[in-house]
């Protein structure tokens, strides 16, 4: 039969009959879950030992555990394993771990017998994972022991180097579904922050001295000092002086330094009134102890520094394990497949040289600027440019580092070393570095403390002036009492305790902030800017519906061949929908940009494209949401593909909710082919800008800022790094929170993006709680000033009022944030209440 259309129709009838005959088993198949990973068995089902598995990979892992008597793994959680359907079966992909330089940089410790190594394993998620990874010694006798850090998703392993190599250990973990993530950045030693250790030392000194000073001061508080005798009273006071010296000179040293820098820059920071209170408290205590034989306020000084440093430590310890400014090496793997004659060798990326021939497989990242040696390749540059449509590259063309190969393995000739490629140049661009000082927002407490300090000083000097006419010693007492009682320790602690608690609550909901200042910035925003690809839309969620005559394998091969010749987004989605169908060989393929494709197959004309291009009217069955792509053979319409945009879940509700309070913008590197569909789904309040390069995005954000707007940029990938830096706040959306996020202020789990209105509302609520705590603190200070200016304040009253005010503010902020978090659903595994 010469007419290809009749062949298609005949195949279509056979296909339809086959589908009818297998409809019941398919329905049953979709209801069966894999015993190992818990996913539905949608493609195949394997029965083994009375259990069902979705693929051979999951079955193999079960067999390994069963042979080693480790099936208790399944008793701890239901279907705890990861899906092994896409398991990489290459036997040489861990060969780079045999390299001495790589091994020495990855291991923590090694001697003649043992090796200690720490791996990051992102798939750790439940008790079963911990149990299995801590029983690796039962899978291989060369493993001594292993310990899991669940919070950081890390595994520390000790093994005998003579019995199992590092390569074999990684292969063992990969075989049971827990392959470690090893990137080029792991070869660089991680630097520690000595400031954190110094803060702990300062806190320890303050706590030790404060506790002992309180012990020596107890008789004074209970008016039992007379029972001790004059000698013991003086001894205890002098011991308090000795204990106060390290507190005054060491524990408070950072406050002195920051206050000096603040005054040097002609500004009043929170540290200035704190230092003023510390110095006054210390000097007046020495005056009382040595000159007028009184007990002083040194125990209060110790308590003040202890609680201040405790709040500071609480703030710094939050989310220390997250990395917000990792470099390009965090994306690159350590190993690269190098081709030498007819052999393939996996070598470390650091040893790749110009002129090497390398092989890059499907979904692997191109590690260096290289020339394509194969006839053609499909490269996805979405990480660099934001454009989700893969680019068709021909033989001899330059493939840039950072591109991801789509399809069969390709061969490349390295032109530049990985450290000199396009991706590195883009990464090192000045615009892609976050300048915290330029974009920092002065904390709310610091701004208030300036006015607070001047007010306190005015009252203190006023009291001194008044009492000087009657009793100068009383004037000194009133002056120092005002400064001591109104020292804004509660004001200083309310901010870090409140924001630290809000940051902790955000973290439980998949929203990780770089520091507490980000919360204040979030509360003051008025403009939100979104990237499209990977942020509002998810290409993997794009849906393709076909309506018409059923497509046989040959017909699918023809369509596959057509879309392979196009980089249009609609062709790309049809290509993905077809899967791994083998493409046929076409003749006279021609693409008319923006319209469609023409070709010849077996002397028959083929057309795939828009309705007008295919000579058709828009289908009356057309769906309101989606683009139409028509398939016509020899002038006969065979069917229509309806393609719906892959909007991330919850965006249709999120955008209108934000539009009532914020100005919304969309910046995308894509063409504007989806503008109409996006407006239908997201509304017209979102101002859309397409064909935006990384520099264009940066300029757009800068223009908004110059117009007086406070801008939040939400994006992903290196192409958004400049815009993330330029915004007052930059949020990097990622499917894995441990992935690198360029110059971002926050990391947001992609599945949690729909809760952005709730996060912004809670940030504003946190600011209100801080203001309320300030009101509580001012109430205490007003009460203290009332007594202080009259000279009625005793040491006991000072010692009680100051800690009481601090403790009450801390309790208020903590209880208030937790209360409203429960009301908003922040502490629960339920949908956040922001509507």
UniProtKB/TrEMBL annotation:
Gene Ontology annotations of biological process type: copper ion homeostasis
Domain HMA, chain residue ranges per copy: 115-181
Compartments in which it is found: Cell membrane
Coarse class of the protein's main subcellular location: membrane
Any one of the GO CC terms: plasma membrane
Gene3D superfamilies: 3.30.70.100, Calcium-transporting ATPase, cytoplasmic domain N, Calcium-transporting ATPase, cytoplasmic transduction domain A, HAD superfamily/HAD-like
Membrane topology: Multi-pass membrane protein
UniProt keyword terms in alphabetical order: Cell membrane, Ion transport, Magnesium, Membrane, Metal-binding, Phosphoprotein, Translocase, Transmembrane, Transmembrane helix, Transport
Superkingdom: Bacteria
Molecular function as annotated in GO: ATP binding; ATP hydrolysis activity; copper ion binding; P-type divalent copper transporter activity
Transmembrane segments: 199-218, 238-256, 268-290, 296-314, 452-470, 476-499, 774-793, 799-821
Family: Belongs to the cation transport ATPase (P-type) (TC 3.A.3) family. Type IB subfamily.
NCBIfam families the UniProt entry points to: ATPase_P-type
Protein name: Cu+-exporting ATPase
């Amino acid at each position: 039969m010469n007419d290809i259309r009749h062949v298609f129709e005949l195949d279509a009838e056979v296909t339809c009959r086959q589908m009818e005959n297998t409809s019941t088993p398919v329905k049953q198949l979709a209801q069966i879950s894999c015993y190992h990973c818990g996913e539905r068995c949608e493609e195949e089902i394997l029965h083994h030992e009375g259990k069902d598995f979705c693929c051979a990979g999951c079955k193999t892992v079960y067999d390994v555990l069963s042979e080693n008597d480790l099936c208790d793994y399944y008793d701890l959680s239901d279907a705890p394993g990861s899906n092994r359907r896409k398991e990489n079966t290459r036997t040489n992909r861990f060969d780079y771990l045999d390299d001495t330089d790589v091994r020495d940089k990855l291991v923590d410790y090694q001697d003649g017998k043992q090796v200690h190594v720490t791996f990051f394993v992102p798939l750790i998620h439940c008790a079963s994972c911990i149990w299995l990874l801590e029983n690796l010694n039962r899978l291989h006798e060369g493993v001594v022991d292993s310990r899991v850090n669940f919070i950081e998703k890390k595994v520390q392993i000790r093994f005998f180097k003579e019995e199992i190599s590092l390569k074999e250990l990684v292969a063992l973990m990969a075989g049971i579904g827990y392959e470690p993530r090893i990137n080029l950045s792991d070869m660089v030693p991680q630097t520690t922050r000595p400031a954190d250790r110094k803060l702990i030392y300062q806190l320890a000194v303050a706590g030790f001295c404060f506790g002992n000073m309180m012990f020596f001061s107890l008789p004074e508080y209970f008016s039992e000092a007379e029972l001790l005798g004059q000698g013991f009273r003086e001894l205890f006071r002098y011991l308090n002086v000795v204990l106060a010296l390290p507190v005054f000179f060491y524990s408070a040293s950072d406050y002195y330094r920051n206050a000096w820098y603040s005054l040097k820059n002609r500004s009043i920071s929170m540290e200035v009134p704190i230092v003023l209170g510390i110095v006054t408290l210390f000097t007046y205590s020495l005056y009382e102890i040595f000159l007028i034989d009184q007990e002083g306020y040194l125990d209060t000084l110790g308590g003040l520094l202890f609680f201040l440093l405790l709040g500071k430590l609480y703030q710094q310890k939050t989310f220390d394990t997250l990395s917000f400014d990792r470099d390009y090496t965090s994306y690159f793997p350590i190993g690269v497949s190098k081709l030498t004659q007819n052999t393939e060798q996996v070598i470390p990326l650091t040893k790749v040289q110009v002129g090497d021939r390398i092989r890059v497989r499907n979904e692997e990242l191109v590690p260096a600027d290289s020339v394509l040696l194969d006839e053609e390749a499909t490269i996805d540059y979405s990480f660099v440019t934001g454009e989700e449509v893969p680019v068709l590259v021909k033989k001899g063309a330059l493939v840039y580092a950072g591109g991801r190969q789509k399809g069969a393995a390709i061969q490349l000739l390295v032109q530049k070393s990985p450290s000199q490629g396009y991706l590195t140049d883009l990464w090192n661009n000045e615009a892609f570095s976050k300048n915290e000082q330029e974009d920092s927002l002065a904390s709310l407490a610091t701004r208030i403390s300036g006015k607070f300090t001047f007010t306190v000083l005015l009252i203190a000097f006023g009291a001194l002036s008044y009492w000087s006419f009657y009793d100068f010693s009383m004037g000194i007492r009133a002056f120092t009492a005002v400064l001591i009682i109104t020292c804004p320790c509660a004001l200083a602690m309310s901010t870090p305790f409140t924001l630290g608690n809000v940051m902790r609550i955000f973290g439980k909901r998949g929203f990780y902030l770089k520091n507490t200042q980000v919360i204040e910035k979030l509360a003051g925003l008025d403009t939100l800017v979104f990237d499209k690809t990977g942020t509002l839309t998810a290409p993997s969620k794009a849906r393709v519906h076909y309506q018409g005559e059923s497509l046989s394998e040959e017909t699918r091969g023809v369509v596959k061949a057509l879309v392979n010749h196009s980089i249009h987004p609609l062709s790309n989605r049809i290509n993905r929908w077809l899967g791994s169908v083998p493409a046929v060989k076409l003749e006279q393929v021609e693409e008319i940009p923006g319209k469609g494709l023409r070709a010849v197959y077996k002397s028959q004309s083929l057309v795939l494209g828009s309705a007008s291009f295919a000579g058709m009217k828009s289908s009356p069955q057309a769906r309101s949401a989606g683009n139409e792509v028509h398939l016509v053979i020899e002038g006969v319409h065979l069917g229509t593909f309806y393609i719906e945009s892959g909007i991330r879940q919850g965006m249709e509700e999120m955008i209108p909710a934000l539009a009532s309070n914020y100005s919304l913008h969309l910046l995308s590197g894509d063409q504007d082919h989806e503008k109409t569909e996006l407006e239908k789904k997201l509304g017209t309040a979102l101002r859309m800008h397409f064909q935006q390069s990384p520099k264009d995005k940066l300029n757009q954000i800068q223009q908004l800022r110059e117009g007086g707007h406070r801008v939040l940029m939400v994006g992903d990938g290196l192409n958004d790094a400049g815009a993330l830096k330029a915004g007052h706040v930059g949020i990097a959306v990622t499917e894995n929170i441990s992935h690198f996020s360029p110059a971002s202020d926050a990391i947001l789990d992609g599945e949690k993006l729909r809760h952005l209105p709730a996060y912004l509302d809670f940030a504003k609520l946190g600011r209100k709680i801080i203001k309320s705590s300030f009101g509580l603190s001012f109430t205490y200070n007003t009460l203290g000033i009332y007594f202080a200016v009259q000279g009625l304040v005793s040491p006991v009253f000072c010692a009680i009022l100051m800690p009481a005010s601090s403790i009450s503010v801390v309790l208020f902020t903590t209880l208030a944030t937790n209360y409203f978090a429960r009301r908003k659903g922040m502490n629960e595994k339920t949908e956040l209440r922001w509507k």
